[in-house]
Amino acid sequence: MAKKSVFYFFWGLMVLMLAALSLVYRDSSEAMVAQVESEVAVISYPKAVRVSKLYVVPGQDVKKGDLLLEVERPDLKLDLEKKENDLNRSDLERTAVIEGYNSDLSLLEAEITGKIERLQSEKIQIQTGLEVRTESKERLSQMIGVKSLTKPDTVTQVKLNSLDQEINSLRTIFSREQRRLSAKKDNELQLLSAQEVILNKELSELRKETSQLVRRSEFDGTIGNVYVQMNELVPPYNRIISVYNSRPSVIKAYSGEREVTELSIGKEVTVKSTNRTYSIDGVITEIGSRVTAYPDKISPVQGQKYYGQEIFIEIPEENQFLNGEKVYVYVKNN
Question: Is the pTM of the predicted complex or chain greater than 0.85?
Answer without folding.
Answer: no
